[in-house]
Amino acid sequence: MNKRLLVTGGAGYIGTHTLVELIENGFSPVVLDNFSNSCPESIRRVEEITGSKIEVFEGDICSSSDLAAVFDHAKATGEIFDAVIHFAGLKAVGESVAQPLRYYETNVGGTLALLKAMDTYGVRNIVFSSSATVYGVPIRLPYDEGHPISPTNPYGWTKAISERVLEDWANTGEGRSAVCLRYFNPIGAHPSGRIGEDPRDTPNNLFPFITQVAVGKRPFLSVFGNDYDTVDGTGVRDYVHVVDLACGHVKAVEFGFTSEGFSAFNLGTGKGTSVLELKHAFEQATQAAVRHEFKARRPGDIAAAFASVQLAEQSLGWRAKKSIDDMCIDGWRWQSSNPDGYTAFAESADQRNT
Ligand code: NAD
Ligand code: UD1
């Protein structure tokens, strides 16, 4: 029988792309999402791409009764989950500074509630969405997994604390496994153009901002700082195609089935790209123009960040394959064919439940 997975936050950007890869690799995912930053249409699109029906529970990872409902249902209808992939959480750095308790409650509290439910039902494997932001200001680059953990904002701390909780949970000698994936900068979209990133408000991140300027939703891109010690003075990051990232989750789940204890892996390409390089690559790949203006540095930003990718390659057998051009072309296909994201097509969660 196919391995059954619970995917929290499966309706979101990385979750939907991961569902596609999981299904294509023979897994049977079940989704738990409260649709606070997504909508059921994204799941419908995954069903369209894969030709598979996906079981979805609308509920909150912080609610023990919502969690019990999902685990009880799994138990009653066959096998309990073989593993959990835990994407659900809040992810806006600025918002986490303004509303730290909400972030700790959802990201740390939600992880605790989920682990308790897993213990109750005897589920011993988890793959967790962490972030390169746990490293904080680099003391060396590329960041290797042994780099000190020193986040600079509440969001980053919610990830670092959750990792710590997972490490202690996995190290009790009871056959548990926790695999933390420290994502660098996921961008792009599924090559079908049917699923992609759908920010609710003004995007905080560079790539969705570029695509929204290109599609005419925003007048220009503000480039935050052109006086960094980098190739052209603009910030350098490690952009990774979201489909490559999704494939990394398939490898991580498989790794978890054959390993015990805690592990953490960087998921990036190992290559740095500056803001202007990304903008230029996007314009070249898509023939869409992106006007830009230089602005002051964004508070809290660092000059450069990129991953050491050896550990993921050696242990997971995963390496990013797609190029910056692929990221631009696929991201643009999604944005240009869905200028308003999923909203134009979305039925509400209420409609879906009736
Ligand atoms: P996303 O917002 O698109 O997806 C998160 C999903 O979780 C959404 O569908 C949302 O509705 C759901 N959710 C939020 N709170 C919930 C709750 N309390 N209960 C149930 N569901 C809830 O975000 P994403 O970009 O897909 O990110 C997924 C994970 O990866 C997050 O944990 C994020 O912190 C982490 N991450 C993302 C990035 C990035 O650049 N996108 C980088 C590093 C780490
Ligand atoms: C941000 C988050 C980080 C998170 C990551 C991936 C902050 C401080 N950090 O990091 O926690 O893990 O996203 O989701 O928010 N830029 C512009 N103009 C823009 C937007 C960005 O010039 O409109 C520049 C930034 O200054 C930076 C680069 O583009 O140099 C990338 O920015 P962004 O996409 O926000 O990613 P990170 O800064 O890596």
Low-confidence stretches: 348-354
The strand count comes to 13
Write down the CATH topology. Answer: Rossmann fold
Number of domains: 1
In angstroms, what is the radius of gyration? 19 Å
Shape summary: globular
**CATH H-level homologous superfamily name:** NAD(P)-binding Rossmann-like Domain
The main β sheet shows up as: 7 strands, parallel
Strand content: 15-25%
**What are the distinct ligands in this entry?**
nicotinamide-adenine-dinucleotide, uridine-diphosphate-N-acetylglucosamine
Give me the number of helical elements: 12
* Separation of the first and last Cα atoms: 31 Å
Helix content: 40-55%
- N-to-C series of helices and strands: EHEHEHEHHEHEEHEEEHEEHEHHH
Structural class assignment:
alpha/beta
CATH-derived architecture? 3-Layer(aba) Sandwich
Instruction: Please list the strands of the largest sheet in the order they lie side by side.
Output: 3-2-1-4-5-6-11
The CATH class is identified as Alpha Beta
Could you tell me the mean pLDDT? 95
Notes on the structure:
Helices cover 41% and strands 16% of the residues. With 354 residues, it is of the alpha/beta class. It is built from 12 helices and 13 strands. It has a 7-stranded parallel beta sheet, with helices on both faces. The protein has a single domain, classed as NAD(P)-binding Rossmann-like Domain (Rossmann fold). The protein starts with a strand and ends with a helix. The structure holds nicotinamide-adenine-dinucleotide (NAD) and uridine-diphosphate-N-acetylglucosamine. The site of uridine-diphosphate-N-acetylglucosamine (UD1) has 20 residues, from helix 7 and strand 8.
